[in-house]
Write a structure and sequence with these properties.
By secondary structure, this protein is mainly α. It is about 40% helix and about 0% strand.
């Protein structure tokens, strides 16, 4: 017996009417027409947009930096001259 291929499809049922939790077939058709794609592509685009808004777009890190890591970073940062910077964007009384 050969290995069965995994089915990468799901059943998708449109709602009878649009609501906060789903859309009707008519709405999906209108959206697809507006986007210039078929219904399947409109669904993929909607899911992708939702994924970008809701799911983290980067790998989770190990949490806050340790004291040793902070010390290493501070050693590598160039030391600047202490002083003040003057901005020409904001006029002060002395200018």
């Amino acid at each position: 017996m050969g290995a069965r291929k995994q089915n990468n499809q799901i059943a998708f049922r449109y709602r009878p009417v649009d609501s906060a939790t789903g859309v009707s077939r008519e709405t999906a058709k209108r959206l697809a027409a507006q986007l210039g794609v078929d219904e399947t592509q409109a669904i993929h685009q909607a899911l992708r947009e939702l994924a970008v808004r809701i799911l983290p777009q980067y790998a989770q890190d190990d949490g806050p930096l340790t004291t040793i890591q902070l010390r290493q970073i501070k050693k590598r940062v160039p030391r600047g001259k202490k002083g003040s910077a003057r901005s020409s964007l904001i006029e002060t009384e002395s200018t």
